[in-house]
Design goal:
By secondary structure, the chain is mainly α. The chain has six helices and two strands; from the N terminus they run H-H-E-E-H-H-H-H.
Length: about 130
């Protein structure tokens, strides 16, 4: 398994492989639509709702054998695509790996992307904060 830094670098490289916002939009849509639809029935509970996001984003984090588990869903395919990128980098990591990872790495995607409004950024930052608290 790649380190978190290596996995994040690959994710950013994949995102930046597209030079314009239309290509990046399609990439996010593809990622969002390829996400398995398996989720707990109660994921869409208010306890899991990230506040401040333009579109609804639900995130539930936990630990299993000291490794991060993440369930997530969104009404927005753009947010769902970004959430999947974050989850794929973070899921299965130990609490020590999560604690030592520089989440500012994801700003390289957020800051270069005109697809993300302030409210959408708020949602993704809320997801990151939820991951950090585990």
């Amino acid at each position: 398994m790649d380190t978190m830094d290596e996995a994040a670098a690959k994710a950013i490289k994949g995102f930046h492989a597209f030079e314009d916002s239309f290509g990046r939009y399609d990439y996010l849509m593809h990622i969002a639509l390829s996400k398995p639809k398996e989720k707990s029935v109660d994921l869409h509970d208010d306890r899991n709702l990230i506040q401040g996001c333009q579109s609804k984003l639900w995130v539930r984090c936990g630990l299993k054998n000291n490794r991060l588990t993440i369930e997530y869903d969104s009404e927005s395919l753009i947010i769902l695509g970004f959430a999947r990128i974050i989850a794929e980098v973070c899921a299965g990591r130990t609490t020590e790996e999560i604690a030592s990872f520089d989440f500012a790495t994801f700003k390289k995607i957020e800051n270069d992307n005109e697809l993300l409004s302030k409210e959408r950024r708020n949602g993704l930052n809320g997801m990151i904060e939820r991951i950090r608290k585990v």
